[in-house]
């Protein structure tokens, strides 16, 4: 390194957004070689990418503790302050954020670089204007240049999280606080990117890329963003004004506040800063003098920097410790607080085996280098010291290398992308430890190969961490919807698509599913997003709904169905989803159709086409499933039909095809033989206690009849009888009991029996008696139908029989006036036909006795 006075030293001082770093990059690129030291690995990486774009990858090096990109012909070095190779000769050297010499933990490094790092042709010191007295005191020949801020920074007061302007950065000072704020932003505004110093550059860049691309409008970060990370931030909100500095929790200095607030506004765009007003908390609050100082960029001059010997002796272990603890001899310098590397060194110096080995300068150098391993996991001097001790033990024995098997095992233990954000962040911190080791070529055989493996693993974990952060703190759907609802013109609307399964996406983000004509919001969406989802659907799905309306109008009958779920309105479905409901119409067979409200957005032409097609399908199905009812209605209105028959058919049609005989007894008495024959041809069965249509007792006609009754009475669909059931318990609910009566079941006390089976039992009973003599029915009759004795008694009484003795239901006698008029000549081929065959066949004349 050139002598102190051999070249000019320029101190470029000023607030944030003055272009200091940009100037240093331009100056370095104008020299044949150069180096810039930065406070953060993230910032070094950012500038490395910029210089690579100017000079080419083969001419630019990146050196940090755990990352090293060092092409053979590298001329331009971008490094962290700790990693600056100040023993190399460069035409240009710069130190960024030099005011960090006041930092208790790392300040001594920046002070050392300020004092010793020099370029052959030019040296630049970049920092806050508060550093001016220190530059004058320590670098007396330096030219000091002040640079004004490009834009105005003004105070905006306290702002609620729900009212934060877009492009805001919220600054917190602990991982827990960062996560809490990010979670609240996810709920309220669709999410936020997260930036912390502990993140790997790859994760940080991926998070910032989301913010820069507008995928999220908010960034939650630690004070790492204050160190020159350039982002498009319009407003900075402080969630807190206190931080833990490694020793105590304290209020930020005004210079620290300004450094962070200064991230708002870039180049010529003005920025604002303020605090975050959290519910249930008094929150952070700036003092008036702090606001005035930040807005005017006027800060208390720095009166000291921390210092530690940068070139300690390695002649002896005690001499090394003494040099590191030596106090500075300049008034403006203060001895640095004990850093973790010195704490670990002093701890190991107490070990006899360490002192036994650290007797020569090379071994002492290796010990001090091992103590320089950063505590990436923040475990503290004791646990971290044990790791350093193990490393030094290996470095000071055998072949002076770390065992490859141990290194590989530790790396393999970290090779997993499972776990939450905290778990992955901890693994990355672990990988950084081994990456630091892998970049020491004198510590590990084949170090270059292991460095590549650690780099690959860090990238793998970083990608997983970015994914977890995004999953946890970004609700991209809400973010997309906020942008979509804010769009002002058709050309600005985000693209909407509906796939074959009906999944609706806006700008590639699923917001729900289109089922038929109904949009169903994603069930995973938060309650607060539902209105936005529905609004987006209403705005965007008009073309798709119109297309579906045309498909419905052209579809065949197979695509339609009648939905008769118990407890729900009767509805018509198309392709598996509701399009209309049935309501009371002119008559039982002519219900009114009301299209579902999901079709309200259709044009009048499309609605008319849908309604016409649905009506045509419904009329055709009623005619097919309930043909006997249609024939009853037509005949009852036919003047050519005999009045007595019309008097029977009209109430039978109104009752849905089943009516008790005593309600139409007068009409039956006036029927002529020809009228009875015509009624039979119309599928009318005149039974002993009921008049009914056998066809309408089948399951599907029964379902349709009950559905039409429910629509006619504006009721929900009742439960349907179990298909094939001949008897059932009598429902306790009156409405349910009435529904089963309409379905074709006659109540017999605690049980109900299907009317056609009741009539068959009536016939069998009459065939079993002889005139009015007492007889005992076969008990198999009731048992086969599942009737209990009490229900069978009710049936016998309804048929006109009486028990011969009160309380005795075993022997019966005929007391009625009207036996069945006709015995069916054909027996059905089922159980009931077999029951009838158990009794001797009788002629109609005998049956009537």
Explain this structure:
It is a single chain. The protein has an eight-stranded mixed beta sheet with strand order 4-3-5-2-6-7-1-8, sandwiched between helices. The chain is elongated. The protein folds into six domains: 9-146, 3-Layer(aba) Sandwich (Rossmann fold); 153-296, P-loop containing nucleotide triphosphate hydrolases (Rossmann fold), CATH 3.40.50.300; 305-468, no CATH class; 484-540, no CATH class; 571-720, no CATH class; 751-847, no CATH class. The chain has 849 residues and is α/β, with parallel strands linked by helices. Strand 25 (577-587) and strand 26 form a beta hairpin. Mean pLDDT is 86; it is low at 1-5, 486-492 and 819-849. It starts with 8 loop residues before the first strand and ends with a helix. It has 31 helices and 34 strands.
Write the layout of secondary structure elements.
Layout: E1 9-13, H1 20-29, E2 34-38, H2 41-55, E3 60-63, E4 68-69, E5 76-80, E6 92-95, H3 107-116, E7 122-127, H4 132-138, E8 143-146, E9 153-160, E10 168-171, H5 175-189, E11 193-195, H6 201-212, E12 218-221, E13 235-238, E14 242-244, E15 249-251, H7 254-261, E16 271-277, H8 288-296, E17 305-307, H9 317-325, E18 333-335, H10 340-349, H11 352-357, H12 361-371, H13 381-395, H14 404-413, H15 421-438, H16 447-473, H17 476-485, E19 496-498, E20 503-506, E21 509-515, E22 518-521, H18 530-540, H19 542-554, E23 560-563, E24 571-574, E25 577-587, E26 590-595, H20 604-625, H21 627-636, H22 643-654, E27 658-660, H23 665-669, H24 673-681, E28 685-686, E29 690-692, H25 699-712, E30 727-729, H26 734-743, E31 745-748, E32 751-754, H27 755-768, H28 780-784, H29 789-798, E33 801-805, E34 808-814, H30 831-837, H31 844-847
Parallel strand pairs: 1-7, 1-8, 2-5, 2-6, 3-5, 6-7, 9-16, 10-12, 10-13, 11-12, 13-16, 17-18
Antiparallel strand pairs: 3-4, 14-15, 19-20, 20-21, 21-22, 23-24, 24-25, 25-26, 27-29, 28-29, 30-32, 31-32, 33-34
Helix pairs in contact: 6-16, 7-8, 9-10, 10-13, 12-13, 15-16, 17-18, 19-20, 21-22
